[in-house]
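Illustration 12: glutathione transferase.
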Amino acid sequence: MSLIKLYGMPMATCTMRVLLCLEEVGAKYELVPISMPTGEHKSPAHLARNPFGQIPALEDGDLTLFESRAIARYVLRKFKGQGPDLLKEGNLSESAMVDVWLDVEAHQYNPAISPIVYQSLILPRMYGGTPDQSIIDTNLEKLKKVLDVYEARLSKSKYLAGDFFSLADLSHFSYTKYFMATPYASVFDSYPHVKAWWEDFTSRPAFKKVAAGMGGHQ
Ligand code: GS8
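Figure caption equivalent — predicted structure in token form:
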């Protein structure tokens, strides 16, 4: 059997989503570094893996995949029965709820939190730029509205899709971890159920291991 190759950067948010899944199921894999600062993600070799010139991409034998959430599902399906059941595919309504909250993460949470992390951490630290406070403020307001919904949801169930930890929760890890290193981390203090959810699931061993690869943001 060929060794899975994950192309990306251990500190990049979407790469981390896949790394967490690989670690949760105890898969053997090789992380092949792709350097974004040198533009390697736009090289012909990488464009052949991901035509959008983004990381991550995964190769498993003849199969090449991109889009981190799709890759995450592939990894969890491939190693089903190894490690926790994070997709609940044996149960129609539970798996539907995993899909709902994974889409909420992709289409509500991520668009609000990612510009805040980019402006306040990535832009100044990686590119030497100056944060645009108006972008941060607009997205903090968006994020608070999303967190209102999360607070209501998490006051009824322990995790997002139900009383079980799933890919929907896992998928929030990387951006939230970085957000907690911004000056705006205290926003979460107004959402006690969200804060407890975050503290609960980030104590998982796979998360500690992947967080150790995040550079100065642990
Ligand atoms: C997004 C990938 C992405 O934005 C996914 O895989 O989930 N929806 C895709 N990757 C960033 C790195 S941060 O994780 C990237 O490659 N950016 C460079 C670019 O867009 O040119």
